[in-house]
Amino acid sequence: MPGPISLKKFASGLLLATLSIYLLRALWDNGTGAKLIRQCRAGLNTELGNADWGLMGQWVNQMAIWAKQLLDYYPHLDGQALTAALTARYRYLEGADSIYIPWERQKNYDLAAHLVAGLRKTHQSTISIEIAYAGNEDLGSEHRDFLQDLDYGISFIDLLESFPNARDDLVNSGWAMKPFAMLASKSRRTILVDADAVFLMPPDRIFEEHQGLVQSGTLLYHDRATLAGGNEGRIFLQEQLALTGRRPSKLFSNESLYFTGDSSFEADSGVVAMDKTRPEVFLSLSFTAWLNTKDVRDSVTYKMFHGDKETFWIPFELSGIEYFVDPRYAGTIGKAENGSPEGDDRIDSLVAGPP
User: Fold this and answer.
1) Which keywords annotate this record (predicted)?
2) Strand, coil or helix: what is 353?
3) Which of 57, 55, 51, 56 minimizes the C-alpha distance to 249?
4) CA-to-CA distance for 157 and 273, rounded, in angstroms?
5) Which of 17, 177, 253, 319 has a 20 to 30 A CA-CA distance from 94?
């Protein structure tokens, strides 16, 4: 048992340690905090073109570091400089407020109705459902009323109202609106689902039970493993990755058939889950939306890749941010018909999807 002198020394040491903590925090607030804000603003000095994906990845990586410092260690600091840097880089975020079911024109409202009924009636799912659309021409009021009456907990997001500075990017945009819908969702942990998706089990506890999603804050599924098209996208991605100065992630280099050239596709975007409470995930998703803005998608993205599919993982790869793709590749369900006119067995119907 320590004597009186030891206790006195212990108390003095504790007092000095406490004072040191307050002093260091004050110094950080007055010095490092101001430096951090200056760095955020200085990060906008570099102009990036539509094809500068690798440099954009470097910028997102640095923004993620700054955001983590602010949120994890100094939440009392004003984060407006970080927000200003983000909106200045991604102009579509100006004036934006913050589905997970993206809407692709009114012709698909019956598919969305089937999806809603499957979640509510078949799987007894209680998660909130948000249906995103881009203006009345994309989803009219009569169709919204029909979907609203299907069940409880259904709301709508007009992306033209959520992103007033992105009208040209969103009107008649099809696939391109999907990352915007994910950003606009009021759910911080969001599952993006195509209107024609069919669930074989309820997704309610996926954020608690899927280990890859728990660890990384992301979950994507592989697209079909098939060869179709050239290597332009793969070569372009390798060039952009080289610009970042980083090696490919272990996930990409060890588990991807796309990386080895054995498949023309890597990921599907029919179902994507992300935890937007993690700043690095939110920033990468913002990068994804940028890749789907009209100028970038018309000049680069959709020329190199098949629509939006690859844009949900490429920002993570280029930014050096962890992400998770289920290692299993998409399966197929088909029906063989005998006695075809050609005299052989043929597949009459085929459905492909994640395992």
Assistant:
1) Glycoprotein, Glycosyltransferase, Membrane, Signal-anchor, Transferase, Transmembrane, Transmembrane helix
2) strand
3) 57
4) 18
5) 319
* Number of domains, the chain: 1
The whole-number pLDDT of residue 336 equals 60
Residues 300 and 50 sit within 8 Å (Cβ to Cβ) = yes
Which residues, 6+ apart, have CB-to-CB distance to 44 below 8 Å? 85, 88, 89
Residue with tokens 């002198």: 5
Q: Which two tokens stand for residue 152?
A: 């409880």
Place of tokens 């945009």: 173
pTM: 0.82
Residue 302 within any structural domain of the chain: yes
Query: What count of Cα atoms within 13 Å lies in the side-chain half-sphere of residue 4?
Result: 0
Q: Does 285 have pLDDT greater than 90?
A: yes
Is pLDDT at 190 greater than 90 in this prediction? yes
Spell 194-208 as b/e; 16+ CB within 10 A means b.
bbebeeeeebeebbe
Q: In this structure, which amino acid lies at residue 156?
A: F
Share of the chain above pLDDT 90, in %: 48
Q: Which residue has the tokens 């098939």?
A: 226
The answer to the question of residue 316 being in a domain is yes
**CATH code for position 271:** 3.90.550
For residue 319, is it within any domain?
Answer: yes
Instruction: Answer yes or no: is pLDDT of 185 > 90.
Output: yes
Mean pLDDT over the full length of the chain: 82
Q: How far apart are the first and last CA of the chain?
A: 62
Query: How big is the chain, counted in residues?
Result: 355
130 alpha carbon, distance to own chain's centre? 16
Q: What is the pLDDT of residues 110-130, one digit of tens each?
A: 888 888 889 988 899 989 999
In this prediction, residue 299 carries a pLDDT of 97
Kindly tell me if the per-residue pLDDT of 341 is higher than 90.
no
